[in-house]
Amino acid sequence: MLKEKRHLIEILFLITDLIIVTLAWFLAYFLRFSTTWIPVEKGVPELDDYFSLLFIIWPVWAIMFRYVGLYQPMRGTSRMRELWLLINSNILSVLVFMAFIYLFREKSVEYSRLVFVYFAGLAIVGTVLERGILRTFLREVRRRGYNLRYILLVGAGQVAADVAKRVRKHRELGIQMIGCLSSTKDDKVGPDGLPVLGGYDDLSHILNTLEIDQVLIGLPLEDSDKLPSILTQASDSIVDVKVIPDLYRFVSLGGYIQEFEGLPAISLQESPMNLTAKRFVDFVLAFILTIIFSPLMLIVALLVKLTSKGGILYSQERVSYDGFPFKIYKFRTMHVNAEQEGPGWTKENDNRITPIGAFLRSTSLDELPQLFNVLVGHMSIVGPRPERPVYIKEFRKRIPRYMLRHKVPAGMTGWAQVNGWRGDTSIDKRIEYDLYYIENWSLFFDLKILILTVWKGFRNSNAY
User: Fold this and answer.
1) How many beta carbons lie within 10 A of that of residue 437, not counting itself?
2) How far apart are CA 291 and CA 85, in angstroms?
3) Are the C-beta atoms of 96 and 53 separated by less than 8 Å?
4) Count of other CB atoms within 10 angstroms of residue 184
5) Is 321 a residue whose pLDDT tops 70?
6) Cβ–Cβ under 8 Å, residues 414 and 383
7) Which domains does the chain have, with CATH numbers?
């Protein structure tokens, strides 16, 4: 029954997509030839010449949208992913369409390039709005108990409990958990209150007697030897089957499935960041900030030089992305040979700090030379603050998952710092906030941290 509804929904999306694309094509024609934004020098072409191109537009868009997966079930798929697919598929469709037109067009007909530009923008905006409205409508329908997908869980461990909690949290997905199968038939109630319908050996019987759309297999690791038997039972049915491996406890960062020499491999410790996009933003932002703050850095350099003996800059070995050691630069805030007795945290009223150094530390102005570290790629604007190797050796022994913070570039400011965990504060809390940042990273999250850094000011009450 669900598959029939799925086909109807696919047809609904296909029809509305083609309607929107058709409207975008005609609107692009009228914007080009019925407005005075850009003068028409070669005369207005016949509408029929453009109308006939719809017989090319319709199959191109339908095939391309299907190819990228826009007509596949998207319950649980993020709106950002669908948005990305829509933008890419529209652009690819326009390019294929233009290539086809210019290869096979009639010599007597000349099409306006500007129409294609208008068309691309209108098609993207139109399909994004249309998809958003349809998805919102479907979510509301499912929230009210219609168009449901009935799912059976095979397994009654932590994986099943996690699935059940997520499904019940999002009613708009339209997923109805009918129960689960356990390793023992004695259990009556499974994870998160789900009824236990039987043991693993009862799967075939249940699939033949109940209306089930999908089977989710989430076996505990200790029951993994039962998987072949379960899959054999499921193969005697046309129900959809998905396997959720009991590896969540080992996933440290952004886990995902990738290909290794043609074989599926589950990555457990991989940075979720788009490092190319982040590096581009870092370089542009660091370049602009270096120009803006160059007069201030010149003044600070003069003050450091005139108020104490020694160099203007102070360099220190730190560790960044993938354990890469680098020299971090700061304006010198301590007297020369301040660490001749070994490295150590600064303390309140620390006599090693120069008079101007105390001010620079409290205002974070001593960090400004790190913009050059960002420019050369040693650091990022936003990220976990880099630590010294001597402290890393100590922290990694007593703090679980500490080394995961080195799966991303170190930063000048970070989520821990804007929440008050900087300087001589709890290292455990800093790691907690650093890992949250890594696991939930996005360019918008970086922007939020930058805004909070400016909003809360650069003053550091924990810098002595």
Assistant:
1) 21
2) 38
3) no
4) 9
5) yes
6) yes
7) 2-143 (no CATH), 149-250 (3.40.50.720), 275-455 (no CATH)
Q: Are 332 and 357 in contact (CB under 8 A)?
A: yes
Closest C-alpha to 226, from 193, 178, 182: 182
3-class DSSP state for residue 73? coil
Beta strand pairing call for 175-182 and 149-154: parallel
Distance from C-alpha of 9 to C-alpha of 138, rounded to nearest angstrom: 9
CA distances from 404 to 257, 278, 383, 408, 418 (A): 19, 18, 12, 8, 20
Joined tokens for residue 329: 């630069």
Residue (of 113, 196, 413) closest to 285 by Cα position: 413
Q: What is the mean pLDDT of the chain?
A: 81
The separation between CA 347 and the C-alpha centre of its own chain, rounded to angstroms, equals: 39
* Helix (H) or strand (E) run with residue 297 in it: helix 275-307
Residue 175's φ and ψ, nearest 5 degrees, are -110, 125
- If you search the block for the tokens 């499912």, which residue do you land on? 142
pLDDT in tens, 2-50: 445 667 888 889 999 999 999 999 999 999 888 877 777 776 778 888 8
DSSP type of residue 464: -
Question: Smallest Cα–Cα separation from 313: which of 329, 298, 325, 302?
Answer: 329
How far apart are alpha carbons 180 and 326 in whole angstroms?
53
Q: What's the CA gap between 351 and 354, in Å, rounded?
A: 8
> Nearest to residue 319, comparing CAs of 399, 387, 256?
387
Rg, C-alpha atoms of the chain: 30
Amino acid occupying residue 250: F
By CB atoms closer than 10 A (0-12, 13-18, 19+), residue 121 is middle
pLDDT in tens, 49-82: 888 899 999 999 999 998 888 887 766 566 777 8
DSSP assignment of 340-389 equals: TT------TT-TTB-HHHHHHHHHTGGGTTHHHHHHHTS-EEESPPP--H
Is the whole model's pTM more than 0.90, yes or no?
A: no
Instruction: Report pLDDT for 210.
Output: 86
pLDDT of residue 224: 83
Q: Is the pLDDT of residue 249 over 70?
A: no
Q: Residue 163: CB partners within 8 Å, gap ≥ 6?
A: 153, 177, 216, 218, 244
Strands (E) in 208-268, as ranges, are 214-217, 240-243, 256-260, 263-267
Q: Spell out the residues 6+ positions from residue 368 whose beta carbon is closer than 8 angstroms to its own.
A: 293, 296, 297, 300, 331
Identity at 64, one-letter amino acid code: M
Rounded Cα distance, 175 and 214, in Å: 10
Confirm if 323 and 396 have CB atoms less than 8 A apart: no
